[in-house]
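Build the 3D complex.
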Amino acid sequence: MMLELRDIDAGYGTVQVLRGLSLQLAAGEVLCLLGRNGAGKTTLMKTILGLADRRAGSIRLDGVEIGTMPAYRIPRLGVGYVPQGRRLFGEMTVAENLRIGQLAGDGDEATRNSALAMFPRLEERLGQRADTLSGGEQQMLAMARALCLGPRVLLLDEPTEGLQPSMIALIRDAASALAAGGVAVLLVEQRVEAVLEIADRVAFLENGRLALDTTPDALRADESLVHRYVGV
Amino acid sequence: MEFGPHLILALLEGLVQASVLMLTALGLSLVFGVMRVVNVAHGEFFMLGAVLAHVVAGWFGAHPALGFIAALLLAPPLVALAALAFDRTVLHRLGHDPERTIVATIGLLYVIQQLTLMTFGPEARPVTAPFNHRIAIPWIETTAAGLSFYFPWGLSTTSYKLFVVVAAFAASAGVWLMMARGRVGLVLRATQLDRETAQAFAIPVHQVYGFVFALGAGLAALGAVLVVPIRQAHYLMGGDPLLLSFIVVIIGGLGSLRGTVWAALLIGMSDGIVSVFFSPTLAKILATLLVALVLVYRPGGLFGAKPA
Amino acid sequence: MSRALVLHLGLIAVLFAAAFLLPAYHHGNLARIMVLAVYAMGYNILFGYAGLLSLGHAMFFAAGMYGMGLTVRYWDWPMILALPFGTLAAAALALLVAVLALRTAGVAFMIVTLMFSQAGFLVILYFNPITRGDEGFVIPQAARRLAGLDLSDPMNRYLAALVLFSVVLLACHRLVLSRLGRVLVAIRENEERARLLGYDVWAHKLGAVVLSGSVAGAAGAAYGALFGSVGASFAEVPFSILPLLYVLAGGAGTVIGPFVGTAFMFYLRDLAGTVTDAHMLVAGAALIALTLFARRGLMGLVRARWAGWLP
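Done.
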């Protein structure tokens, strides 16, 4: 088991968001996390990264307890993050953003090159400021930046938000390829259809805990499940 | 002295002050840019640099050149260490909250200033420059015989002052290079742009803060060591550099290093000129009002972008 | 009668009794403390209740002091006119500063007030011939008369200070309970929500600055009249820091806190003064300690632990 969360209580300050949440993710697996706005999807990712207040429960990365670690130690253990809204370092160039990713991990040139190979369009824009890129390119950069650290676990928070269908396909294929290469992928999305193809499992977050953990096939068989948990 | 040479003199003096101000203000600008806090005790770090320079130079009594070099090597790091200690023990505990940090640094200002008063005393003490040669500056005049050079009496500078200008520019260039190219600069800029995401990319933000706070103090102290052979060390000498650094950082644009450099040159030179030709008090009144009005009407400063 | 009112009236009664019981040294100190506490209470209106941290209140104190002092010195005004004039001068300055400074918030507001105050100090120095600059000037004893009483007499001075203190203390008490006071607290807690609820946030903040500045000015005018000297040091930065220190120590956002903080810090610095000349050292160290460990101040702590009813 690459990533294991057990009985997590977490939130921000006095507000509690996650209640007794447990979750498992294996290497090479793509787990898609769905839920309404405010259900706690982003909080879950931030808790794994140590950026939220974890009050109870344990988080294990490949057997190592990371719940008590300071946030800046965790990425180095192989956790890559593609934040919601991308959160690029806008005033820095594409190359510099990638470099930050490299510095966060063992990131050698090979890792960076394979990240760029996945998103060749970035190669042409290395000297450009990140905030001058188009929406799709920014998403590619956000993913490439995370890949530059050579992650074993990749956290993707709504990566297809605001993208055209061709871009969505690109992101989706990249995630799938990474999983095939052994990376554990935790993917949060609002839109179910976008990710159903590549997910090995689909889980629903409700009231701060996992309400349902099932497979894409089961979802396709029963559409009412989606309405129930995501309320389209 | 006629107006022309007098102006040249004022400009030269202004250049010396401006280059030291540039270095000092860069320190304050870095702290504000990366940490988003205002260090009201910045002037006191400057003063500490000068005071420590006097003390260290005193150990080398008969050899001013050695004394100065020792001061240059020892004083800024010592001041930086003191600043680091304060950041670890106090500012870190305050979570670097902007308002609480200002109040705490106000407290620090008085603690440093008054402790210096108690140990160093209220008199101004000199530091001997390592070298000091008078360099006369020529002035052009049209006469019946055409253009001719002459050396107006009183229009001169010293080799040491020129050294100060060169050194301050070199140090500032070093800081600039570090920020624009180096790995350290990359980490600092990432922290400045998005603190949370920086942490998600293994940047130890709190250690970065400590480093930046120390660096800011060290730069102020360096500026002071350079200028103290020209001025003198005095426990109240931190007030003017603080005010001027404030003006520079606010007008240049909070968080913009380029703006800081331009504003320092502009303000350093004009402060020199206004002080020479008009009253220093009037210059200060205009300066403080200028800062206030810039903050009121253009919160991003004259060069900086509008803050998010 | 509410517990709060009992407490405040009780304090006034104790201070009144102390007028006749205290030895001369403490008698004089307490008179000073009471006037400085008025300054602190003025500061508290802005900081403790409206939540705006000014670093330039010395300019209001000095405006009151010089407003009173200059009219007495150059136009021979009697105190009955000079004192209100000083207060009004401070109020006018507060209005001007508020209109400009309220366009900023947070750290920028702090720096703007600091800068305006510094400019004010420098202006006093610049007009040296009129203001006598740094050394200041003395208010002659003959001029220090109010309602037939000689204010330089220690007992009269003490009682006059007590009257001013009592008026301001009870006025603050009323302010806190009033609608204006509650709106200010609402703005401090959550400005956006207050605006959404329909309150004119800007107008309330403006009122808070003017009120705060006027009270500070009244304290300045009174201080000059009661202790007989007017000087630029009262416009300098350290004098802007002191009310912040007093209010933090005593408890920001409480009515009685400023008095407690002023008395405490006054005596602390007095004690330290016997050991060293560096009187601001204690102030600096106390500021750091308070921000780190005791943000609520003495009365704030009392309110949190035992007396939730304390306004």
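The longest helix of chain A spans residues 165-180.
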